[in-house]
Design goal:
The protein contains 20 helices and 32 strands. By secondary structure, the chain is an alpha+beta fold. The protein has a 7-stranded mixed β-sheet with strand order 4-8-2-15-12-13-14, sandwiched between helices. A 6-stranded mixed β-sheet has the order 10-18-17-16-11-32, sandwiched between helices. Strands 1-27-26-25 form a 4-stranded antiparallel β-sheet. Helix 15 runs parallel beside helix 16.
Length: 819
């Protein structure tokens, strides 16, 4: 075949490949309010489901009378535990949670009965008519009541794989880590710092509540359209509960309004399917906000006891810690969270002698499971607080002290695992330290317009908090007497101060987070890629079961296919269980795992295309690739257009991507190659504190993070900004309050506070790209690491401003005022 030069034939080069800040395909729809979320699902003859929940945290169920509910006009079904057709329990790692409570309830808000009716209000009224007789029991609410003498065993029947190695049945899992000789190291220490820390229960606080639509099928199965993080694990748990083979339980991802770990467990999935199969009609369930707080897991609250030792010249000698995580009523992912908390418990530092213990408890508090950071958040707050305290005892700069002990590539973790990819901990710290500091007293105005120093306080295009200038008339509404712009002060528009008692503080922190599933889990993802001609143009179709929960995976998937196949048009098929599992959208793993699977599938498609061309045109030689819809040689010569190679034929390939194998941590020593990859992020926080009222304004929250390779730089920045904001929330406002009798006191966004745009400060972000040779394109998972170090950085800054110890998060006003 004649060969022509590429410049005259590749007329339209492919854009939007990896490395480009390609816009999200769903972005415009979401901004305009036109995106269809799972709560928008509709079916002509659908019923509405509703769940009756326990008002008690721990009680025996003496009787349930559904007669009045069934008799209500418009009610099609009422189901309790006795109506379940097959398996009665489910669970992510341990099958311990009842689909509907039987004999007893173990937490406030546990599902007791479900109703299907022709109107959502009818379903609510019917549920209210169900009469349940409870015998209230004392609650197990902390370690003392869980493991002390005479403690009530919450799951006496447990027979899971963790039960044999724990000292009490109310301990879900225990992971010790021992390395070196702590006693000898303690004797070498010139300074020893001990402290106890506490982390409150944080909620994922996604905006889209749990919802879905279950449709009974003609084959006796069910089709479920659902907002979830892991389609296939939902399918695996649902099928036994419904008494159906997995192939008859078909799941399709509906629009997801955020997740952050809370959608990894089942919520309303089983209830909707059960009601649909019982009534023979489609059933939709949508939680209201209060139900959402009861219907999903939260971040584990924790108590952490730490001891750090160091020599006078600033080298750490040893670390000991004991971490107690409250897993709540059911196991969920507590065993894995315990493994993370223990293995990452000393942070990104080199310490040869450690003695670590982490446990997760069963209590009657709300169930806790996956949330962004997954055990590493709690540990990071404690070890970074310790690093500040030790630096202060030694009279050293807190950044320099951290750098002196920072790990590098090749160093060993407490588990004995070597970090075999770049670990630029010291550099990340230096980068945030070297960033210009924001100006002080920006609330003071020179001309009554609130303008002085404002421009200098902004951080350009990466500043999430940048404000546009307004006319003086609009600005003047916020100017107090004396020319004070109250928006720049703690308390903001509540006008609580005009600058009296305001003290500035600066704090630093750095964290380490694992990427992907760990401890021997066979972590993999599947991708199916199809290439064909449509309308005379080559089009790639990418089909995976990845849950797009807002992280931007669909964008990256298109970018990978464009890069590997050299075509502009890439369509993303709806995620469902008709293709192999993509694993969970969690653990910062999807770009690594599903992105890797798409890369492999695209490579296989490309090889098939080249084989077709070789058979059709007799090509020889290596280095051929696809570019701009053409087959191109390594030298840039065009051999043929894809339309000539493919004709009417479609090429389709399916591939799985597995990361390197890991092993469980030893149950006695904690040693083992437990994690496949690590990510690092450092933060500097600048705060203004009103010391009289205990109000905090985070003035700036800057970050530096190594991402390996930024496949989409704009999305990377968004992930770092989002994670930092979530960490800020934990630092100063977010906590589910649980009463002494284990009842949730604030299940609403009125009383559970999350940062708004007014609370979110400017963010300078410095991105490093140091490739991990073990990962596709050298990338690292991005989304979780900034959630770790942002919290301790903010609290460190508040300490610097106030001189207070502040050993608990969130920091509330009364912690600062002593009232």
């Amino acid at each position: 075949m004649a060969v022509t030069r590429a410049p005259q034939d590749i007329t339209t080069p492919v854009t939007g490949g990896i490395g480009a800040s390609t816009l999200r395909p769903d972005g415009t729809l979401k901004v305009r309010g036109e995106f269809a979320y799972s709560s928008d699902l509709w079916h002509e003859d659908m019923l509405w489901g509703f769940t009756l929940r326990s008002p008690h945290a721990h009680a025996l169920i003496r009787s349930i009378d559904t007669g009045e509910a069934v008799a209500l006009p418009g009610v099609y079904a009422v189901m309790t535990y006795d109506d379940l057709p097959a398996r009665t329990h489910y669970g992510l790692e341990v099958i311990d949670q009842p689909v509907l409570a039987h004999d007893r309830v173990r937490y406030h808000g546990e599902a007791v009965a479900i109703v299907a009716a022709d109107h959502p209000e009818t379903a609510r009224r019917a549920a209210a008519r169900i009469k349940v007789e409870y015998e209230v029991l004392p609650t197990v609410h902390d370690e003392a009541t869980a493991t002390g003498p005479g403690a009530t065993v919450l799951h006496p029947e447990r027979d899971d794989r963790h039960a044999a190695h724990v000292s009490h049945p109310n301990i879900v899992h225990r992971q010790p880590i021992h390395r070196g000789d702590v006693a000898a190291a303690r004797a070498r220490a010139d300074v020893i710092v001990r402290a106890e820390y506490e982390v409150g229960m944080q909620d994922q606080a996604f905006l889209g509540p749990e919802s879905g639509l279950a449709v009974p099928a003609e084959d006796g199965g069910v089709d479920l359209y659902i907002a979830t993080q892991w389609l296939h694990v939902d399918q695996q748990q649902l099928a036994p509960v419904l008494g159906l083979p997995e192939e008859k339980v078909r799941l399709t991802l509906a629009g997801v309004g955020g997740a952050f770990g809370a959608r990894e467990d089942l919520s309303m999935q089983a209830h909707a399917c059960l009601l649909a199969l019982r009534t023979g009609k489609p059933v939709k369930i949508v939680y209201n906000r209060e139900e959402s707080f009861f219907g999903h897991v939260h971040r584990h609250p924790a108590k952490l006891l730490y001891e750090h030792g160091a020599t006078r010249d600033g080298k750490l000698t040893h670390v000991t810690c004991r971490i107690v995580l409250d897993g709540g009523a059911y196991a969920s992912s507590t065993p894995a969270v315990v493994g993370n908390a223990s293995s990452l418990s000393i942070g990104p530092y080199v310490v040869g002698d450690v003695d670590i213990e982490a446990i997760g408890l069963y209590t009657n508090n709300p169930p806790c499971g996956a949330m962004r950071g997954f055990g590493a958040v709690q540990a990071c707050f404690a070890y970074e607080s310790q690093m500040d305290k030790v630096a202060a005892e030694l009279g050293l700069d807190p950044v320099e002290f951290r750098q002196l002990n920072a790990m590098e590539q090749g160093d060993l973790l407490p588990t004995g695992q070597a970090v075999d990819s770049p670990a630029p901990v010291a550099e990340l710290l230096q980068r945030v330290k070297d960033m210009p500091l924001p100006p002080e007293r920006t609330w003071e105005t020179a001309d009554g317009t609130g303008a002085r120093n404002r421009d200098a306080a902004q951080v350009g295009g990466r500043d999430r908090g940048t404000r546009e200038r307004h006319p003086a008339g609009a600005e003047s509404r916020w100017i107090a007497t004396g020319g004070i712009d109250v928006r720049e002060l703690p308390g903001g528009l509540s006008n609580t101060t005009h600058g009296e008692g305001i003290v500035r503080g600066i704090g630093y922190a750095v964290g380490i987070k694992n990427v992907g599933f760990s401890e021997g889990f066979d972590d993999y993802s599947t991708a199916r890629v199809r290439l064909e001609m449509i309308g005379g143009e080559p089009v790639a179709l990418v089909h995976t079961a990845m849950a797009e929960v807002g992280q931007g995976g669909v964008t990256v998937h298109q970018q990978i296919a464009r890069t590997e196949l050299g075509v502009q048009t890439v369509t993303i098929a709806p995620a469902d269980t008709q293709v192999g599992s993509a694993g969970s959208t969690s653990a910062s793993r999807q770009t690594y795992m599903t992105g890797g699977a798409i890369k492999l599938a695209c490579e296989a498609v490309r090889e098939r295309v080249l084989e077709l061309g070789e058979a059709k045109f007799g090509w020889t030689g290596e280095g051929l690739t696809l570019e701009g819809g053409k087959v191109v040689t390594a030298g840039g010569d065009v051999l043929a257009a894809l339309v000539d190679v493919l004709g009417d034929e479609a090429v389709e390939e399916t591939r799985e991507h597995h990361h390197r194998p890991t092993v469980p941590f030893d149950l006695k020593t904690g040693q083992g190659f437990g994690h496949v990859q690590y990510s690092f992020c450092a933060h500097r926080a600048v705060v203004d504190v009103d010391t009289e009222l205990g109000l905090v304004k985070v003035v700036e929250l800057s970050a530096a993070q190594d991402v390996g390779k930024a496949l989409n730089p704009l999305s990377v920045l968004g992930q770092i900004q989002g994670g930092s904001t979530q960490g800020l929330g934990l630092a100063v406002m977010e906590e589910i309050l649980v009463s002494p009798d284990s009842k949730v006191r604030n299940p609403s966004f009125t009383d559970y506070l999350i940062p708004t745009i007014l609370d979110t400060p400017p963010m300078r972000i410095d991105v490093l790209e140091l490739a991990d040779d073990h990962a596709p394109y050298g990338l690292r998972g991005v989304g979780e690491a900034p959630t770790l170090s942002s919290t301790p950085a903010v609290v460190s800054a508040i300490r610097a401003a106030t001189g207070l110890a502040l050993t608990r998060v969130p920091v509330r006003p009364e912690h600062l005022t002593g009232t």
